[in-house]
What we know:
Low-confidence stretches: none
Shape: elongated
Strand content: 5-15%
Amino acid sequence: MSKLGFIGLGIMGAPMAGHLVNAGHEVFLATRSAVPAALLTGKAVACASAAEVAEKADIIFMMLPDTPDVQKVLFGDKGVAAGLAKAGKGKVVVDMSSISPMDTKEFAQKINALGADYLDAPVSGGEVGAKAASLTIMVGGPEATFERVKPLFELMGKNITLVGANGDGQTCKVANQIIVALNIAAVGEALLFASKAGADPAKVRQALMGGFAASRILEVHGERMIKRTFNPGFRIGLHQKDLGLALSGARALGVALPQTASAAQLMQVCSANGMQDLDHSALVRGLELMAGHEVAKA
């Protein structure tokens, strides 16, 4: 059993930390609000700060919304870096957030300078995957550190890949978010077209699931579009942030991502109409607003 830390206990972080607690590890927990009571079982302990978590745990996981949040938790007042400076060398910091690949490389260098190893390990699978411990985990960092942490990753996910060096895990996640966004937009356009033309979108989806157009997005998000279940598994606002990372990275690399830009604008339509906290399957609502037609009624 290891001494672990987990910082960030939101929609994704809470169930992920719960798997570590349930496996019998001693887990030191911290989050912006109160630590959920359901997690305070077994050997779980609530801590007052990220610094306290880093001081007490050997491996510190983070699951936070955006790059500035990670920077603050790592290097802000009573942050992880302060705890590492007190505790000595040999610890591991694992960032499972989805943030900037370039900033990740800088963060890793600063943590390394304090004598700790660093892994960027963003995930895909949403709230459902977090609860089911079936997340896809994309890892960047040293192979030896990856092997040390892999048994813990296996408590939270199933498809676990060391992609490359620090920053490469985040680059892989950005690529993932491009593919997911474009597929959601494609499914939304297809179902909107079918519905506006007078066909039953539920039956169209059923037919498409048996052909070459079948996909996990059509299966899960297409059903959400038809049943109007837009409670968040992964919020539009967060996906919009990820596409922003893709587009800023594309500018830096000198490449064009026209379809990604289009999907980002559809998400902006949703955000401008107060839908940033809905599930990203609600991207179809942006298309519906422009068409003056809903795929289906609630």
